[in-house]
């Protein structure tokens, strides 16, 4: 038993399981990323080769996932720092809770130190006010803990810059008998009770003990007072005990401990900004001293990162060699190995940046690294040689030249954020191809509009066309050419209202003294008629006045009325008056009436009607 901690197990099984199910749903068809592929490349662009954790099969299943080394901290003793191993809980998928978009959520693989949540009970169990938060972020903490706090002790400035200022959960969230507080814009934090029940993070989702939540303890942390059984703080506060915060106990169960308990360990977590990660590579033996094809290995589960800085390798850079034009290299299929000479800034010219190697990465069109390695380790050199291997398949490639600081296995490397970029194209051998026969122009796309006595046909300009021919027919007639024009429209005037006319258009261009014609456009039908009148309604006492604007070409107007919008409309007036108004009288007071109007033109004694106007309504007074 943990004598130095006053703690209670307070999660009720039924409520906890309900809350877990409600809080962390697994969407239909949503699964976990598989673990590493059968064979993986030792170096990969970004973090795409790192898989999310596997879902534990039972409470007895250990956490199963991949790891990233980042930063250094005391582990075996209080003198020598060693690379810190972190569990990858979420590789940029934003699986809710403490994850951030575009970040990798990491949890230390061990309890790394021993720090009280607060120095005494009076200071309470609020994460935002905790001494633990201050110590983790090296920000004005109190107490005799590791000098400098965790952030500044464990990470170099460049590494600190790649750690995201996280917010995570909402501050008013709760999870069972625990709060789920926001991270508060801090870099380093502890997980919450909800986090360690999140199956997407690789933790078993159930009440009680769970092997996947257990942590071992470093020798250094034990020396600082951490219980060797592996008990560690969460940032959640107890909602029932004012001076107690959540912990994970020795068997992986969520419990609570007094905020000034002095043997509970710290297992830090943070979100790594993936936009700062240039490469991820196998934690050991991944960086090659020569430019060569990237080797593959079995299942890689331990990685390290290469971070990008603000320096540029492109200043005064250039390339020369076979097939070079500017910053582009063009090779033909079956080429022999191609030697290039690359000009670049000297590594020592970057001042405080301690670059050790000029490196090159050859990627395919998907960004996958095919070849990688050092091409020069002389810090004063301003040019380097590189050979493009023979036999690359047809396609486009990118060769990027970096200045890199290599720091050894399991340690973070650094590289110029802006590389010198060379485009590489592998193409088929060019052959002389006979000139194709001239193709006719494309078929015009036509549309039209009408007035009471005309039809306008318009079409989009056809590329390469010298002109257009318009053909017309009546319903039972043959098509005859009625217009040749260079314009993209033609108006056929003096037409008969109500008569159907049919049009089609073709484009042409001149080739060798002859016209090449496109196919005819689709047939366009046009029926000249008057337009629907524009009108307004004015309500009076038991009457409604309707007035309308003159329609060009109209001989008269018909007015229709109904008692409902979709009811039966009856003609109430056929007007040829020049006044263009009519008043309905003897109507029911306070009743809504609906109207529509159409114009007509008399052709050979018959009325040819326009479409109906839009239905309007008004209520009588």
Question: Could you characterize what this model shows?
Answer:
Residues 440-533 form the Fibronectin type-III domain. This is Fibronectin type III domain-containing protein. It comes from Hominibacterium faecale. This protein has 621 residues and is mostly beta strands. The chain folds into four domains: 7-274, no CATH class; 309-427, Immunoglobulin-like, CATH 2.60.40; 446-526, Immunoglobulins (Immunoglobulin-like, Sandwich), CATH 2.60.40.10; 535-619, Immunoglobulins (Immunoglobulin-like, Sandwich). Helix content is 5%, strand content 38%. It is built from five helices and 47 strands. The protein has a 16-stranded mixed sheet that branches. Strands 34, 35, 37, 38 and 39 form a five-stranded antiparallel sheet that branches. A hairpin with a 5-residue loop joins strand 34 (467-474) and strand 35. It is flat, with a radius of gyration of 40 Å. Mean pLDDT is 89; it is low at 1-38.
